[in-house]
Automatic annotation (TrEMBL), chain A:
Keywords tagged on the record: Endoplasmic reticulum, Membrane, Transmembrane, Transmembrane helix
Transmembrane segments: 45-65, 86-107
Pfam families: EMC6 (PF07019)
Record-level GO cellular component terms: EMC complex
InterPro entries: Emc6, EMC6-like
Protein name: ER membrane protein complex subunit 6
Superkingdom field: Eukaryota
Cellular compartment(s): Endoplasmic reticulum membrane
Principal localisation: endoplasmic reticulum
Homology family: Belongs to the EMC6 family.
From TrEMBL, chain B:
Record keyword Nucleotide-binding present: no
Name under which the protein is recorded: Membrane magnesium transporter
Gene Ontology cellular component list: early endosome; EMC complex; Golgi apparatus; plasma membrane
Keyword Coiled coil: no
Keywords, alphabetical: Endoplasmic reticulum, Membrane, Transmembrane, Transmembrane helix
GO molecular function, one term: inorganic cation transmembrane transporter activity
PANTHER family assigned to the protein according to its UniProt record, in alphabetical order: ER MEMBRANE PROTEIN COMPLEX SUBUNIT 5, PTHR21181
Transmembrane segments annotated in the record for this chain: 7-27, 47-69
């Protein structure tokens, strides 16, 4: 299939809207899990392992509750629901992790 | 739809309160350990559990607040549109209508 045909196969506004929804969920969840990691006092690799587990949990929630287990209907590539915005979320995760760790564990 | 969103916002406030409470409990516990001069080695299990539960509450609330995903296939989009919406094109608008010739007939 040529690119021209593929472009007319999808509605581009809906693609943008879906990506926006997924980004909202991802960034909120990474901020909150980052705060939790800081409160729990995780350091080093444990924090990144915690991010991996919680982002897998978030992906599963999106896949099951938002995409009704049929991501092919909402994304051009069905695997996007697991990978979209994971690395972008890592930065806000680290930000909130260090902030809450500093507030709770370091300064008193 | 709006009921779900407002319920999700309410859950989000509960999640925020539990997260804040666990943060404050951790802070209190650490300052208590410092006051009695013990080495902080492990957090009490209640605080950890409260923190993890608040993550779950937040996850549910965010899922509820975020809008539904939209189907992206053009096929599904076209089934919702009527033929008048698809077929409308400005190219075929007619601005000359029969009134002009009718007027000459009347006069």
């Amino acid at each position: 299939m040529t690119t021209q045909n593929q472009a007319s196969l999808y509605v581009s506004e809906k693609i943008v809207q879906n990506v926006k929804t997924i980004t909202f969920i991802r960034s909120s969840m990474s901020a909150i899990t980052g705060s939790a990691a800081g409160i729990l006092g995780l350091t080093g690799y444990y924090g990144f392992i915690f991010y991996g587990i919680t982002s897998l949990f978030t992906s599963f929630l999106i896949w099951s509750a938002k995409a009704q287990a049929k991501p092919g209907l909402y994304f051009r590539n069905g695997l996007d629901v697991w990978t979209e915005g994971v690395f972008g979320g890592l930065f806000s995760y680290v930000l909130f992790w260090t902030l809450l760790y500093g507030i709770v564990h370091v300064y008193d | 739809m709006t009921v779900i969103v407002s319920l999700g916002k309410f859950l989000g406030w509960i999640g925020f309160l539990t997260l804040f409470h666990s943060a404050y409990s951790t802070y209190e516990h650490l300052s208590y350990l410092k006051a009695v001069e013990k080495i902080p080695n492990e957090m009490p299990i209640e605080i950890t559990v409260e923190c993890l539960i608040s993550i779950v509450i937040f996850a549910i609330s965010i899922i509820m607040v975020a809008g539904p995903l939209k189907p992206i296939l053009m096929k599904d989009e076209m089934t919702k549109k009527t033929i008048d919406k698809v077929d409308i094109r400005p190219n075929f608008n007619t601005f000359n209508h029969r009134c002009r010739s009718m007027r000459s007939l009347v006069n």
